[in-house]
């Protein structure tokens, strides 16, 4: 039997960062990480394998991050937990004793139980190198690709397939792409960009069957239409992995993920859960949240890892900070939309500012930029923000996220001091975070 | 005599934003802006006129910002203030009565009293369209340019001149360019980029005379060396304009600018001062500060404008947030450096993280990125940060600035939730703000 202090199950972002954080906070701890994959993919980088970086091998988290932090790696599959004995058994026949256990066992892509989903050429976005190599081979021979799901992963996969000059169609159930995350005006802007790039988007529609014999030939839609397809890719969300926890008698939460408290402890004091497998509580609503993001996973890992020896950090809840880019259009979102906030029972006001992300507007790379900030009317605190524009959106949304996390009010944000530069940002006169806050204030008093 | 409610003297960033802010907070106020310039330049855009946007005309703040906000414009020069009568007299013979007066009278570039500074071909970076048109004409005929001062403006002017294929030399008194703002490792990195771009930098050196008869021919240095020059540009800082205030008996501060309280009021309750002409108090040290930035000016204008009718906002002090870009290297800085903090009597620790600004590293545009965060050891609050990397530095430094402004501690920042995307940011595992905070924590306890 192996004995360790901190045992981590799962080697993706959450598991790795949990291990590194234990090491940073507890230099003398023995740390062991068990994962079943030979190689670990950078999760958010997966779509970019297919049209940009060229192969799954170029999208790996290097194991040097483990060795550099003195984390022992065991490639094996954890099959059961004995909470009383504080041991984990593996498929390879090993038993590993732990002081504290960290479950970072992730999620599986959802594939609906449609006829034909098992045909050759039907894929989802699995974090699995050999599987993605299979998708790459299929795309190498394909002409027509249908992506089912117009969320982030779906659009990014569609755009990467388009970079390979394939005929690409996205099928989305809702009235717009990205409609679960962004306001309509942003979704429409993205649909324009997709159209410019020659990607066909069919909204208000859904797949009812995958057609073909052994191999996929097409997709049948709710509208009755049939789309030709050599490859079909599902990008409709994930289902948390919970079997290991459930079998061990750990509590499962409302959202069918592993229940955790604010310290990221499961119903067993010696077992933490982090990342996609762990239940999330929304920062604003205090209700269970369906958000699953690598950046939430790593935050949870920074919390749980610090709590290995003593309870040091509490989770304030999932804010949800997203960004994406298609063509020249970048989008960012943090916290809540006005619509969702109102549905949740909060009275909110929205401040909107439009400008360009350079100054003067004649600077190279200048792109239109729009910011919508959502403030809780009673407390005046920022609870959400959306931004569209050029590449600077990627960090701009993190300014919004920092303001949400620190409880900044509209008045505070209206007097934020910001760095501005002609080649890098909007002008100090038009800086849209400050101006959107100032305009929201007018609606608050 | 004209009567107005809010009278603003000065039409650059501070004056304009003061006017817009009065309008936003007090929809019914009569607002009048007096400025002496026919056209107003975007201050931070001035260097980019010469190598990028092509003419001063393309770097103007449009007067539509005034008319759209119902601000009356008078192009004239304010010559005196009568505090008791609450009137301002102008060079054009007008008298304007006010309820509240906003002085946004800016600053002048410093030119040292060296022999030859009045020669033809010697310039500073004045916010004056005809003057800058003169500089443009001189550059059109020039071959050798000497820039005196290796700060932001100096380097940006040097880089723009280099884009015109001129021989460019920068003369800097200190051991490094940008040494007043950045740590040595960043200054050295910038000097490498300047060298790659063929810009000669002479540090630890200063101009002792400008050579020539009617027209400049060269620059004599402290080292004895003589540099050939058709054009000499001074970029060594600014001197606040205070005469109008001083003549009116308003109090002048320690740093030879117009004294103001936290509400941005001068020693007269009815007169505010904002922007380069107004005294600044450092956010961290609580001491008068030499910082002069358009973004500080606009923040002060958001404060003073809101205080027109009642006292709504207080100035927390100047944080100082900078960014710049030369070649592919962008730099950002917010708050205090460790060295300056220690000199000011604060015990600090520094957390450093290095990564790339994309993930995986094979994504196009991936650039090395380094972040140094300075934390006050006792309170654990972030008080400063420096970042070098690609374009994303421009908004990344604003995440740092927001964290400083909101009093975020290292522990809070180590659990910040951030948006990450392969094409736009570092990976969630390596996000350098979070990791630098985590590494600083190790030195705090």
Task: Please describe the structure with a list of short key phrases separated by commas or semicolons.
homodimer, 445 residues, alpha/beta, FAD/NAD(P)-binding domain, Enolase-like, domain 1, 3 domains, five-stranded parallel sheet, 12 helices, 25% helix
Explain this structure to me?
The structure is a homodimer. Chain A is α/β, with parallel strands linked by helices and about 450 residues long. Chain A folds into 3 domains: about 1-110 and about 240-305, 3-Layer(bba) Sandwich (FAD/NAD(P)-binding domain); about 120-235, FAD/NAD(P)-binding domain; about 320-440, FAD/NAD-linked reductase, C-terminal dimerisation domain (Enolase-like, domain 1, 2-Layer Sandwich). The model of chain A has no long low-confidence stretch (mean pLDDT about 95). Chain A has a 5-stranded parallel β-sheet. In chain A, strands 10-17-11-12-13 form a 5-stranded parallel β-sheet. Chain A has a 5-stranded antiparallel β-sheet with strand order 22-23-26-25-24, with helices on both faces. In chain A, about 25% of the residues lie in helices and about 25% in strands.
């Amino acid at each position: 039997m192996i004995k360790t202090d901190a045992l981590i199950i799962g080697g993706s972002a959450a598991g790795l960062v949990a291990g590194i954080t234990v090491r940073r906070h507890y230099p003398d701890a023995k740390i062991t990480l068990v994962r079943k994959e030979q190689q670990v993919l950078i999760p958010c980088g997966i779509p970019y394998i297919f049209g940009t970086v060229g192969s799954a091998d170029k999208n790996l988290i290097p194991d040097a991050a483990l060795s550099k932090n003195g984390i022992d790696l065991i490639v094996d599959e954890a099959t059961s937990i004995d909470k009383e004995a504080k041991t984990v058994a593996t498929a390879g026949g090993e038993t590993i004793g732990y002081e504290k256990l960290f479950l970072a066992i992730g999620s599986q892509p959802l594939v609906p139980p449609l006829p034909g989903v098992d045909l050759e050429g039907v894929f989802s976005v699995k974090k699995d190198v050999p599987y993605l190599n299979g998708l790459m081979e299929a795309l190498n021979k394909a002409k027509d690709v249908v992506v089912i799901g117009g969320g982030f992963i779906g659009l990014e996969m569609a755009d990467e397939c388009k970079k390979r000059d394939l005929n690409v169609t996205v099928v989305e159930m809702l009235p717009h792409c990205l409609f679960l995350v962004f306001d309509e005006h942003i979704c429409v802007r993205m649909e324009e960009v997709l159209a410019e790039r020659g990607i066909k988007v069919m909204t208000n529609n859904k797949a009812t069957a995958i057609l073909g014999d052994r191999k996929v030939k097409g997709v049948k839609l709710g509208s009755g239409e049939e789309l030709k397809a050599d490859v079909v890719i599902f990008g409709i969300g994930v289902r948390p992995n919970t079997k290991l926890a459930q079998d061990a008698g750990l509590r499962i939460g409302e959202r069918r993920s592993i229940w955790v408290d604010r310290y990221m402890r499961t119903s067993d004091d010696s077992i933490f859960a982090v990342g996609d497998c762990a239940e999330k509580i929304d920062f604003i609503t205090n209700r269970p949240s369906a958000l699953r993001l690598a950046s939430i996973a790593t935050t949870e890992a920074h919390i749980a890892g610090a709590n290995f020896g003593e309870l040091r950090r509490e989770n304030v809840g999932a804010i949800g900070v997203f960004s994406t880019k298609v063509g020249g259009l970048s989008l960012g979102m943090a916290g809540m939309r006005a619509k969702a906030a109102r549905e949740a029972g909060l009275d909110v006001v929205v401040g909107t500012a439009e400008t360009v992300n350079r100054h003067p507007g004649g600077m190279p790379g200048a792109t239109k930029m729009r910011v919508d900030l959502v403030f809780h009317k009673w407390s005046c605190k920022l609870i959400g923000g959306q931004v569209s524009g050029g590449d600077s959106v990627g960090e701009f949304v993190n300014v919004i996220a920092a303001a949400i996390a620190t409880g900044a009010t509209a008045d505070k944000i209206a007097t934020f001091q910001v760095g501005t530069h002609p080649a890098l940002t909007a002008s100090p006169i038009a800086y849209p975070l400050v101006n959107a806050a100032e305009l929201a204030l007018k609606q608050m008093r």
